[in-house]
């Protein structure tokens, strides 16, 4: 493969696979280097908001994604630990999120790539850039390799090798709080179609994700990263003792080996996502806490915007820097409030949710969800 017109994507997660689909559609010859021995997504569930669905429409996969999604009204069904509703979703006016098991969405997207596009067991070890393009170094079980490309995409996550190589002064990931995530056995969907429960120092989110399963997440305040427990499900039960009945039902329906515990980190702002013909996207560029539900959505936006701006990567920077910085900052602030141990902060949050008209809440959400891809009739540029 010659470097002109070729692109190498480092990382085969949702952002990397979406970038490969988008770049191929724009005429690029694409190779994805994925360090895992097989192409698969790990984790639990995720939600896709309307902004990311529009991006997927722009690359021809939106219809398939919608057909596979399960709607969730968790953003509108807000509860307190005792079970009281602060707000109920209004399907006539509220917009549902499209929810999936992460592996199901990844599988759907990866199926759009021709065989041979993804090289698994390929660990990127370095990258360099020049006026002519860029060079990626990677390692497999067979040896060390170099590949020249006209474009290199760093989609290799929060601990990105691409970022560490070309952005050596970038801020390190910063710990924010800790979270458990789980997926129930098939046959356990519950009638609320998703809820978000606020408690002092913790929140509990639940999304239906298809096959009559529910994805749930417990986020809690933590002073120190890296603390682990011998039985994650038991620890979640302990922390949610006394919470409303539906929480206990979901935990009862969750196999112990389907519970993950991860610390939640984000990244400080980078001055640019572009170095020559190398760009960053997704968590490699702007890892964020899950408190806006926009981690995967912003990676998808990045991928589609990149495919539209490969002839002018400065335009990619202009389109993505301001928007993603604002979303990272808002997610960080919301997360800080959501897991605050302060009873006063919790009371103020509850009071605000009780009093805020639904129209104001929708307007705040719309500032993120109303984004449209570059080149469409109502594209807002870097908004």
Structural overview:
The protein is globular and about 60 Å long. Helices cover 34% and strands 27% of the residues. Residues 377-383 have low confidence and may be disordered. The strands form 4 sheets. It has a 7-stranded mixed β-sheet with strand order 6-5-14-15-16-13-17, sandwiched between helices. The chain is an alpha/beta fold and 383 residues long. The longest helix has 26 residues, at 313-338. The chain is built from 12 helices and 19 strands. One of its GO terms (molecular function) is monooxygenase activity.
Amount of helix: 25-40%
How does the helix and strand content classify structurally? Answer: alpha/beta
Q: Identify the strand order in the major beta sheet.
A: 6-5-14-15-16-13-17
Contiguous uncertain segments of 5+ residues: 377-383
Overall radius of gyration: 21 Å
Count of the domains: 1
- The CATH class assignment is Alpha Beta
**How many DSSP H or I helices?**
12
Enter the CATH topology name: FAD/NAD(P)-binding domain
- Averaging pLDDT over every residue, what do you get? 93
- Tell me the fraction of residues in β-strands, as a range: 25-35%
Q: Write down the overall geometry.
A: globular
CATH architecture assignment: 3-Layer(bba) Sandwich
Instruction: Report the biggest beta sheet as strand number plus sense, adding barrel if it closes.
Output: 7 strands, mixed
State the distance separating the first and last CA atoms.
37 Å
Q: Care to count the β-strands?
A: 19
- The CATH superfamily appears as FAD/NAD(P)-binding domain
């Amino acid at each position: 493969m010659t470097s002109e017109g070729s692109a190498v994507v480092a990382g085969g997660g949702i952002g990397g696979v979406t970038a490969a689909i988008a770049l191929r559609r724009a005429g690029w010859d694409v190779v994805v280097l994925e360090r895992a021995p097989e192409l698969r997504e790990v984790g639990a569930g995720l939600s896709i908001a309307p902004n990311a669905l529009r991006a997927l429409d722009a690359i021809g996969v939106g219809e398939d994604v919608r057909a596979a999604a399960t709607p969730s009204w968790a953003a509108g069904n807000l509860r307190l630990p005792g079970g009281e509703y602060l707000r109920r979703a209004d399907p006539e006016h509220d917009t549902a999120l499209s929810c999936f098991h992460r592996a199901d969405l990844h599988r759907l997207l990866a199926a759009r790539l021709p065989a041979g596009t993804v090289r698994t067991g390929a660990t990127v070890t370095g990258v360099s850039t020049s006026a002519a393009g860029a060079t990626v170094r990677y390692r497999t079980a067979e040896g060390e390799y170099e590949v020249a490309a006209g474009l290199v995409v760093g989609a290799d996550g929060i601990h990105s090798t691409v970022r560490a190589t070309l952005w050596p002064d970038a801020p390190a990931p910063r710990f924010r709080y800790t979270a458990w995530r789980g997926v129930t056995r098939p046959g356990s969907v519950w009638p609320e179609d998703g809820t978000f429960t606020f408690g002092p120092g913790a929140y509990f989110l639940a999304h239906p994700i298809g096959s009559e399963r529910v994805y749930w997440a417990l986020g809690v305040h933590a002073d120190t990263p890296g603390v682990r427990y011998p039985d994650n499900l038991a620890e979640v039960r302990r922390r949610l003792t006394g919470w409303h009945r539906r929480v206990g039902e979901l935990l009862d329906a969750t196999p112990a080996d389907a519970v993950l515990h991860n610390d939640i980190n984000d990244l400080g702002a980078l001055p640019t996502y572009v170095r020559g013909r190398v760009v960053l996207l997704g968590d490699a560029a702007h890892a964020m806490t899950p408190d806006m539900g926009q981690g995967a959505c912003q990676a998808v936006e990045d991928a589609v915007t990149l495919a539209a701006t490969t002839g002018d990567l400065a335009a990619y920077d202009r389109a993505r820097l301001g928007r993603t910085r604002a979303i990272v900052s808002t997610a960080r602030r919301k997360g800080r409030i959501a897991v605050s141990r302060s009873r006063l902060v919790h009371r103020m949050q509850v009071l605000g949710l009780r009093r805020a008209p639904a129209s104001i809440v929708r307007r705040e959400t719309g500032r993120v969800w109303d984004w449209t891809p570059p080149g469409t009739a109502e594209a807002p540029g870097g908004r």
